[in-house]
Automatic annotation (TrEMBL):
It comes from Papilio xuthus (Asian swallowtail butterfly). The keyword Repeat applies. Keywords: Repeat, Signal. Pfam families: MIR. Residues 21-75, 83-139 form the MIR domain. This is Stromal cell-derived factor 2. Coiled coil: none annotated. PANTHER family: GH21273P, STROMAL CELL-DERIVED FACTOR 2-LIKE PROTEIN. Residues 1-18 form the signal peptide.
Length: 214
């Protein structure tokens, strides 16, 4: 009888963990894949040579690049409970782990396609301005890991997208990331992939977190 009780308890714990693993949460570190282009959102300490001159944002086709990690956090001045699932159609910021700057956009032209420029911006503490805010656009209650979402820039209403064009030196072969006016255009779907997914009850980011290979 005790053995049956133990097996049932383990089964219920597995169901609970699987349920928690379904969502992207506040405090999660992840990589985002453009589902059409099969490229991961990326940044690095390389500035645009035109437009804003801010830190460039690109897309890469490799899965093991450390410059493709992003931290999901609340908008400036707001808070969210670490491990709480991100509700659809709420605003977040995405902080680039390596450089501490936030995914950002504004009314500058992108260097290759002439769409809206997407950059990384902020100080050493990860604080920028309202141009760092993005709305998670999805049709579920929460941002699910197994379902693509769209990211809509709050200030300009542009959607995060790939342009399908690639750079030359010094970032040869990396894809251009832009803002576009319509969510129905191509290359606007993004899905959570590799990461460290924080959930309620996790003591520290490296303890009891459900994660996949970074």
């Amino acid at each position: 009888m005790q053995l049956i009780f133990l097996l049932v308890s383990v089964y219920l714990m597995q169901i609970s963990s699987a349920s928690k693993a379904e969502f992207v949460t506040c405090g999660t570190i992840l990589k985002l894949v453009n589902t059409d282009l099969k490229l991961r959102l990326h940044s690095h300490d390389v500035k645009y040579g035109s437009g804003s001159g801010q830190q460039s944002v690109t897309a890469v086709d490799v899965s093991d690049d450390n410059n493709s990690h992003w931290l999901v956090k609340p908008t400036m001045g707001e808070t969210c409970k670490r491990g709480a699932p991100i509700k659809c159609n709420t605003n977040i910021r995405l902080q680039h782990i390596s450089t501490k700057k936030n995914l950002h956009s504004h009314y500058f032209s992108s260097p290759l396609s002439g769409n809206q420029e997407v950059s990384c911006y902020g100080d050493d503490d990860g604080e920028g301005d309202s141009g760092d805010n993005w709305t998670v656009v999805c049709n579920n209650d929460y941002w699910r890991r197994d379902t693509p979402v769209k990211l809509k820039h709050v200030d300009t209403a542009a959607y995060l997208a790939g342009s399908g064009r690639t750079f030359g030196r010094p970032i040869s072969g990396q894809g251009e990331i832009v803002g576009v006016s319509s969510q129905y255009g191509t290359y606007t779907d993004w899905q959570a992939k590799e990461g460290l997914f924080i959930h309620p009850g996790d003591l520290l980011p490296h303890q009891n977190a459900i994660h996949t290979e970074l």
